[in-house]
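We modelled the chain as a single entity of 270 amino acids. Its sequence is:
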Amino acid sequence: MALLTTQLILIAVFILIIHSIETLAYAVRLSGARVGLLASALSLFNILVMVSRMSNMMQQPFTGSLLDNAPKDNTFEFLALQFRFIIGASTIGTIVGIILFPTFIALFSRAIIHLAEVDGSIPALFKKGLSPSYIKRALKHIHLPKISTVKNIQFKDVPVRLFFVNIFITAIYTIGVLSALFAAFLVPAHSATAVMASGLVNGIATILLIIFIDPKISVMADKVIKGKGSYQQLKTASFMMVMSRLCGTLLAQLIFLPAAYYIAWFTRFF
């Protein structure tokens, strides 16, 4: 059986898009601070997070089918390579998000202003944003990251603790479903318990994100709007958060199998 199947490629593309969206979500609060409309920005941020979480749930059955269709011989190595390929897609998706980050700061800034103009109506925003004239205008804002962005980073402004916490949270979220599915293969007698553990793992990662990351960035954006903080400092923090996401997807490759073994061991208590 071929390792690289059409199904695996489609799942990888899906994961790539999900992680691109989640990376670009960090640009929303930066855009909100830029135009002074943080509340409207948070509405747009919540939509992006909801889309990415829903997409992640939708891909789970397709990823689960890889386990069902795995060959009988060398199943361990075969599944491990397929799942690592998917994790690699999350890394590529994050890189795509980083490349598109400056473009979407500009696009989100205009989207937030338009959202306020249409009294918070998301359908009206989409109707307006998908019109040919606005699409043509949006294409003019496409530009790649500049080296000057990195050069302007003041490392004293880098939230070091936040950086490492986000690496850990991203790694957990990246391998939550995959490690649970692999654990189901490791302990067939408790496979259902192992698969259901994916919701618990991702739930914990989401809670940690809400507790430790989101409030910090939101407060920094508030300070910028009130004139008590620096936009450059917020930009630095946002840039470091997306870089920590990238590191998190790389860490996911290292903890994928240990996490699967841990979930397999944990299922024996149920």
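As a brief sanity check on the tokenised model: The chain has one domain: 6-269. The chain has a mean pLDDT of 86.
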